[in-house]
UniProtKB/TrEMBL annotation:
It comes from the Eukaryota. Residues 19-78 form the Mnd1 HTH domain. This is Meiotic nuclear divisions 1. InterPro entries: Mnd1_HTH, WH_DNA-bd_sf. The gene is MND1. Pfam families: Mnd1 (PF03962).
Length: 129
């Protein structure tokens, strides 16, 4: 009788979080080929999905990318991520002081590396007031 491994792959969000950990832990600049070697070994992200995950992070402004000559370089530093979260929170708080904002802080495995903030503006009438 042959037993198949029921090992489950990482979700897209888990891959994104682990990719960000690579940047935040090393505080280094990488080329795609470097990340395709590092991510599978250190974070369990398949080499085939590294490019897609990286592009989604670049598209969302979480990872910076710069073309120098014929090469693309990628980086993300914790200080920029913290500044972006603070700025987003300030914008949300200043939009309508009379409105109720529920701020949900999502904390993943490594709090200091990855925090996401989501805000939802409530209609005051839904609060029973």
């Amino acid at each position: 009788m042959c037993l198949k491994s029921k090992k489950k792959g990482l979700s897209a969000e888990e891959k994104r979080t682990r990719m960000m950990e690579i940047f935040f832990e090393t505080k280094d600049v990488f080329q795609l080929k470097d990340l395709e070697k590092i991510a599978p070994k250190e974070k369990g992200i398949t080499a085939m999905s590294v490019k897609e995950v990286l592009q989604s992070l670049v598209d969302d402004g979480m990872v910076d990318c710069e073309r120098i000559g014929t090469s693309n370089y990628y980086w993300a530093f914790p200080s920029k991520a913290l500044h972006a979260r603070k700025h987003k929170l300030e914008v949300l708080e200043s939009q309508d002081p009379g409105c109720c904002f529920h701020v949900i802080i999502k904390v993943s495995y490594y709090r200091k590396f990855w925090l996401g903030a989501v805000a939802h503006a409530c209609n005051p009438s839904t609060l029973g007031g």
